[in-house]
Amino acid sequence: AALSCRYVLCEVVSEDPRCRQCIEDRAVGLAVRDAVGRVHGDYGLACCSISFTVKYLNAYTGTVLLRCRKDSYRLLCSALPFVRQLESRNQRYPCSLNTLHVGGTIRTCQKFLIQYNRRQLLMLLQNCTNEEERRCIQKSLLSCSLTEEQSQSGDEEDDDGPE
C-alpha cells in the first residue's frame, strides 16, 4: 500500500501585490522547509521532507496544496505560521501562510476549496455597489463546482479520512 498522506490547503496572504508573481512551487517549498527547520530543527525537517511536495498551486488566488506523510503533518502544520516570506530571483516578499483545511485526499481539499470560495464570493456579493459587479460575482458563484473531468483525475492516494 502507498504511504498514507495528508494534504494541507493554504492560502498565501501578503500586503505586497508583487508577491503574487513569486508564488511558485520552488519558492513555496523552500519557505515551508525553512520554517520547519527553524521550528523543529534537523530532525523535524528530515521527518517532514519525506514525501513532502507542493502538489498544486494557483498564483492568481494564492492557493497552495501541500502533501506530506500522515505521521508528520502536525509537525508541518505547526511550522506554517512561521513562514514569513517568499524568495524569488533574489527578491524577498513578506507574506504568511493561512491554513484552510487538512484532508486525507486531494478530492476532500477540492471540495472544501469550492465551499470556501463560495462563501468568499457570497460575502463579496453582499458588498456589491452596482449591478455589473453583482452579475460578475453571481457568474463566478455558478462556476464554483467540480467538473466530471476533475473528479476522474485518479489522483487519490489514500482515503482513510481525517483522524
UniProtKB/TrEMBL annotation:
GO terms for cellular component: multimeric ribonuclease P complex; nucleolus. The lineage of its organism: Eukaryota, Metazoa, Chordata, Craniata, Vertebrata. It is found in: Nucleus, Nucleolus. Component of nuclear RNase P and RNase MRP ribonucleoproteins. RNase P consists of a catalytic RNA moiety and 10 different protein chains; POP1, POP4, POP5, POP7, RPP14, RPP21, RPP25, RPP30, RPP38 and RPP40. Within the RNase P complex, POP1, POP7 and RPP25 form the 'finger' subcomplex, POP5, RPP14, RPP40 and homodimeric RPP30 form the 'palm' subcomplex, and RPP21, POP4 and RPP38 form the 'wrist' subcomplex. All subunits of the RNase P complex interact with the catalytic RNA. Several subunits of RNase P are also part of the RNase MRP complex. This is Ribonuclease P/MRP protein subunit POP5. Its main location: nucleus. The gene is POP5. Keywords: Nucleus, rRNA processing, tRNA processing. InterPro entries: Pop5/Rpp14/Rnp2-like, RNase_P/MRP_POP5, Rnp2-like_sf. One of its GO terms (biological process) is rRNA processing. Belongs to the eukaryotic/archaeal RNase P protein component 2 family. One of its GO terms (molecular function) is ribonuclease P RNA binding. Component of ribonuclease P, a protein complex that generates mature tRNA molecules by cleaving their 5'-ends. Also a component of the MRP ribonuclease complex, which cleaves pre-rRNA sequences. The keyword ATP-binding does not apply.
